[in-house]
């Protein structure tokens, strides 16, 4: 069952906020901070996981583990009917950290993380072979100032 944010209540958002601050926070600490029982915290969090609203993962600092090259790639697709299949092919590639269809000058926006410039060149060469891609424009990110999850307080 899929939920949208309007069906989440204040407690759901509070639990999500706690876990954004510390993904390893225990049910006991969450319950104490939110002034609910441990059982309530556990039940709510398990429901959020079951419904796919949250996934508990370890978040890596890409720079500290060896990803030295970040890039934005604008992808132009022709004919437009191939956009979906092109996006599905790009989505399979492990370098891709963000992929979206756009309404701007280009068709797909792709952000990638690569260990080296040579790896980035190989990646761009590889996606350029995908049927339907007729042009790419790559912009290197020299320095990433913020890499974060969305601030749930913006929904209040």
Automatic annotation (TrEMBL):
Keyword Ribosomal protein: no
Pfam families (alphabetical): AsnC_trans_reg, HTH_24
Domain of life: Bacteria
PROSITE patterns per record: HTH_ASNC_2
Domain HTH asnC-type: 8-68
Key words of the record: DNA-binding, Transcription, Transcription regulation
Protein name per the record: Lrp/AsnC family transcriptional regulator
Species the sequence originates in: Spirosoma flavum
